[in-house]
């Protein structure tokens, strides 16, 4: 990636300055003033801008999809910070691809507006109700879909859901806003839109349908039936490693000569697999590499089990051992080998191949992606929200291993290491700051488990009945005792020697 000479003034990113950007930086070739909206995206973080927005940008670079521009939105007060940054630069974003062999940058222009963040979400509802919006997509994190951990169904008792059911015209949640917009569309004859989930959830479209329809049913059963019958909720699988933006990322974009307050770095890999089920049309995303298939589940199972599960396999030991980044975790003699052994011997046997890729090949692919030293993806970011990620990404592999008779010793070790992590200190004595929505409960359980390991597994909202499965609970107990008595490195070395 070409650096600007010292002392060069930075070009403030905006529509007006696109022609002033350094020659090596790609920029929109289309006239952004002529773009028309077709999508509202709720939850506009780095991943969306490096993934969905990029695919649309590639179509627009071909002169296509000019009526599918994105309008950004958020429903939480902290979304206002990102809105302020993006609106100040005409919703443009500099994407910096980081690869060990080469890197380059481009400015993406497929997003044209970002709605104000406000109580009651009036303008968001109004915008989604307009007939030009044909897709409402969202990334609101894996834990944001109001799922009852006990039965994996919809949780109608959450205070925000109760509020939205009682005041459907002034919703707090993204889902309440979607329901309110669809009510207006039914009334004014605009028809349904497609609801597209872009979060790492297995069957994510089905989960989104469950949340939206169930919430609607609490206040308007007839509307719920109309949504369920007319709207579509395609399942999808999304994949691209996108670190959080911090001082290093800002320094990279400044080296390019660009003043961008919200740049995004990403790896040289993207994948998007979607069911072709769009009730109001869609852009021709298959022309720019998106896979449309009826077998989304196969792709998402491979990715969620090996990539997302693998992220937990390495980030949890990394946190306990004070390893700062995912790439450094892979360089660590024990953690890197731990990933390969657990992914190959304990996760991959329960994963089916998909067209063109075997689980073994996918493990090798992920090993290379995790090892990319150019991607400064922090261990802390990847270890965030373990209560959702372990339940969604690792526990299914444990259950399959118990059913199929394959080893679960390494997975039990990772769960024990997570219990050690949630005690709140690293082995060097430093403090692990709260890193989960349920941190206080996790820390209490982790301290109790130091004396009685099975206490940790009694969190049935995460582990279900696994505390009652001796093959798993005995292995977990053994590893947690080793970790506390002799250290995590000793536990990992013992497992790797088996």
TrEMBL record:
<dbReference type="InterPro" id="IPR050988">
    <property type="entry name" value="Mannitol_DH/Oxidoreductase"/>
</dbReference>
<dbReference type="InterPro" id="IPR000669">
    <property type="entry name" value="Mannitol_DH"/>
</dbReference>
<dbReference type="InterPro" id="IPR013131">
    <property type="entry name" value="Mannitol_DH_N"/>
</dbReference>
<dbReference type="InterPro" id="IPR008927">
    <property type="entry name" value="6-PGluconate_DH-like_C_sf"/>
</dbReference>
<dbReference type="InterPro" id="IPR013118">
    <property type="entry name" value="Mannitol_DH_C"/>
</dbReference>
<dbReference type="Pfam" id="PF01232">
    <property type="entry name" value="Mannitol_dh"/>
</dbReference>
<feature type="domain" description="Mannitol dehydrogenase N-terminal">
    <location>
        <begin position="38"/>
        <end position="286"/>
    </location>
</feature>
<dbReference type="GO" id="GO:0016491">
    <property type="term" value="F:oxidoreductase activity"/>
</dbReference>
<dbReference type="InterPro" id="IPR036291">
    <property type="entry name" value="NAD(P)-bd_dom_sf"/>
</dbReference>
<dbReference type="Pfam" id="PF08125">
    <property type="entry name" value="Mannitol_dh_C"/>
</dbReference>
<protein>
    <submittedName>
        <fullName>Mannitol dehydrogenase family protein</fullName>
        <ecNumber>1.1.1.-</ecNumber>
    </submittedName>
</protein>
<feature type="domain" description="Mannitol dehydrogenase C-terminal">
    <location>
        <begin position="295"/>
        <end position="483"/>
    </location>
</feature>
<keyword id="KW-0560">Oxidoreductase</keyword>
<dbReference type="InterPro" id="IPR013328">
    <property type="entry name" value="6PGD_dom2"/>
</dbReference>
